[in-house]
Amino acid sequence: MFRKEPNTDVAWCALYSRLQNENLLNEEPVQIKQRKRIIPVYWAAACIIALLGTTIFFLYNSDKKSADLLTLQNTENENILVKTLEDGSTVYLTSNASVSYPKSFSGNKREISLKGEALFDVAKNPSKPFLIETEKVTVKVLGTAFKVKSSAEGDFELVVQRGRVRVTEKVNGNSIVVTAGQSVSFIDNHLFKYSNKDSNIFNRYTSKMRFKDETLQNIVHVINQNNDSFVVLKGDLLKASRLNVQFYKNNVNEMTQIISMALNLKREIRQDTIFISQP
């Protein structure tokens, strides 16, 4: 399989120096015109942010009940660790957050557990719902984007950006459906729903993204998803190549240049699409 060990820091420094020498740093970034695309139904996204009660690594949980689970942890202070799961759902882990999940989702549901704060972009699959276990409640994704805060002490808050979410209390089984523009909190062992119109709560999760040993295909998918762009990788070997890379408030042009320079790839722009291929 195609595999390289790139130095993305060198690539970024080279790009920055070139932009500085050409007096381009203060200019408006080149905009890639958004293409009107038909998004398949199974990719209707759901985003979640959850806060629960820790170098970045994978490990197998030795507990008998979760012997087949992988745990991904992020103990960095600044960066958001981004990981794409087997079903195509993307996880954005903040500092001190961890998520446990199976290598492959089997059965009739996709179930994970979370500690800390994270944003999820869930691939929609009506026949296999996505469930997130927190300390006091279970969150069922019904095709939506939402923010969750939860702690080991039982504090819980959820804000829906679009679509709807079902939140169920673990103790008594009471559940509530929350829709776009609404929030729900768990106070004194009860769920309370109220209005919330903050539309900027998700922005900080994509401003400092770090990918650890992630496939180039998954990295480009996240870039396209968060920037309304259309970046295309040409070649299956290229898609399967893995990369360690970090982006800090970079636009699409800068991110694709960093990737291309780090892996010594060819990059060209045709109308509203950026193509990346082997030279």
Automatic annotation (TrEMBL):
Question: Source organism's superkingdom?
Answer: Bacteria
Q: Which UniProt keywords apply?
A: Membrane, Transmembrane, Transmembrane helix
- Give me the segments passing through the membrane: 41-60
Against Gene3D superfamilies, the record matches this protein to: 2.60.120.1440, 3.55.50.30
Q: Where is the FecR protein domain?
A: 75-166
What is the protein name given in its UniProt record? FecR family protein
Q: Which GO terms describe its molecular function?
A: sigma factor antagonist activity
Annotated source species = Bacteroides luti
